[in-house]
Amino acid sequence: MLSTSLPLVEDVLLLILSFCDIAGILTISRSSKYFYRLGSSKGVWLAAVTELVRKGFVPQEEGVVLGDLTKEQLVEKAKRAMLGPQTWGRDDHNHPGPPIVSRTLPSSVRNDDWLDFEVKLLLGGEYLFHRNWRLECWSVSQREVVWTYKCCVEDAGVIAFAAELTDTLDQAVIMPCQRTRENTVERRNYVEVLTLDLKARNSQSVMVARVPDGHGGDDPYSHPQICGDVAAVAVADRRNRI
Question: Which domain of life is it from (predicted)?
Answer without folding.
Answer: Eukaryota
